[in-house]
Amino acid sequence: MDKPHIFSFALPAHEITEELSEQVGHDNPLAVEVAGPLFDAGVQFAAITERPEFLRAEPWPRPWHTFYLVIQGELHMTTGAKTYTWQAGDLAFCPAGVPFRRTGLPGQPVRWLYIRLHDIPAWEPLKQHGFTSSPYESADLLFLLLRRVLDAHRYRSAELIALAHSHARALVDLLRHEITLSGHPPQPYTVPLQQLMAEIQQNPSVDWNSSVLAKRLNVSTRKLYRIFNTEYGMPPKEMVIKQRIAQAAEQLARTTTPIGKIAESLGYQSLYSFSNLFKKHTGMRPTAYRKKFEH
Predict the structure, then answer these.
(1) Which fold has domain 190-292?
(2) Count of Cβ atoms closer than 10 Å to residue 168 Cβ
(3) N or C: which end of the chain has fewer CB within 10 A?
(4) Contact present, 130 and 182 (Cβ < 8 Å)
(5) Residue ranges covered by each domain of the chain
(6) Torsion angle, alpha carbons of 281, 286, 291, 295, to 10
(7) Count of CB atoms within 10 A of residue 111's CB?
(8) Is the CB of residue 38 less than 8 Å from the CB of residue 278?
(9) Phi and psi of 114, rounded to 5°?
(10) CA 125, 96, 21 angle in degrees (round to 5)?
(11) Partners of 91 in the beta sheet?
């Protein structure tokens, strides 16, 4: 079981029994059809990987930039004389040319999201801060966006592919946001906002309306909207919905919990409304989404 962590990933853990990697790459024409906006922005490769254990013996420099988001378990990174430990919800960045060794704990499963970027001028500002690792308040949103792209690539329905383009653009926007943050000091509201997002993840059924959110951050409603648009590129209500949909998608894929129970646990009393909302954000109704993962 993962150690307690204030920025714990919102999605429930699942059993990892074999090596698995779902991926899209710029050299695959089918992937380009689904995730063109990713590759247009300089992404080489994006994947969700899970392994019973992971070891790499020697450090080596990559000719590309890399983002890692830990979803389950722990990853360890050694660069130079320093070793970093990442837990669920931590986002790490390593610029091109920096040698490092990435390992897991022997006998412990690990699951992570991986994005590789071309070393091009658009991503140059990331080099200014070198290797970084920190809790990431948008962890479940980043996961959900890539999960939707991978689903579209796997099932190849016209509806999912159309949605995947918008998901890919939103994913690129999140990565570009990291460039913006890397060049500016943290805002006074950064830590309270991260704590608030963790609370939303842990208590999704609460009525997280604008008044409640503004009160938790001790700001006006108008300032609340500015903060969310700056940090996440969307209003507070939309961010709360995305948090809930991410949890719903994972429960549908990984558990047999009745859909009505899932909806109720996320604060939706109407199964019909929940089903419509889920379809709007994923391209499928909950029953169809679960059926895709039956095997």
Answers:
(1) Arc Repressor Mutant, subunit A (1.10.10)
(2) 26
(3) C
(4) no
(5) 20-182, 190-292
(6) 80
(7) 22
(8) no
(9) -135, 130
(10) 115
(11) 69, 134
